[in-house]
Amino acid sequence: MPLSDHEQRMLDQIESALYAEDPKFASSVRGGNLRAPSARRRLQGVALFVLGLAMLVCGVAINATWIGGLPILSVIGFIVMFGGVVFAITGSRASGPVDKSAPSSGSVRAKRGKSPGGSFTSRMEDRFRRRFDE
């Protein structure tokens, strides 16, 4: 369900205030720019999975690959299978310019200035109370 215009404005204000008060935390919480995996990446992941599965089966079937009672080729095959699945389901990081929609701390402070209302949370609580008192 999409947000209403008022809710979107409030969310933008909260985000701006978060960037203004603690830009380092805000940028770490914002997360990475992960994309959905491409068809080529998925195909490569499936190929790795099949290769790992073949290694796993061959490692159990061929006794020459056992070292100390442990089928080493099978263990490596399982790791390759796991890596193939991870490779297939994760997308690569988006390359290109950094997202310009996120405000920098300097521009937010310049726009907002020093308001006498106190901290961000107290201002939001005041707005909330005023809205329900009306």
Automatic annotation (TrEMBL):
This is DUF3040 domain-containing protein. InterPro entries: DUF3040 (IPR021401). It comes from Mycobacterium adipatum. Keywords: Membrane, Transmembrane, Transmembrane helix. Residues 93-134 are annotated as: Disordered. The chain crosses the membrane at residues 45-66, 72-91. Residues 123-134 have a biased composition (Basic and acidic residues). It comes from the Bacteria.
